[in-house]
Specification:
By secondary structure, the chain is mainly alpha-helical. The protein is built from 2 helices and no strands. The protein is rod-shaped. The model has no long low-confidence stretch (mean pLDDT about 90).
Length: about 55
Amino acid sequence: MSGVAAFFAMGGYAAFVWPSYGLSALGIGAATFVTLNSYRRTRAALTLLEGLKDAKK
């Protein structure tokens, strides 16, 4: 078996290793999405509150 094919076969454990990598990448992607979405919503709420504070002056 060539070096590249052996790497992708992972010594016979490829059926366990590659899905684990995929699920990990999916989890990191989901966590990043949730974090950025929460940041955007919080930033919008802060902007709204700052606008209300300025309107009272």
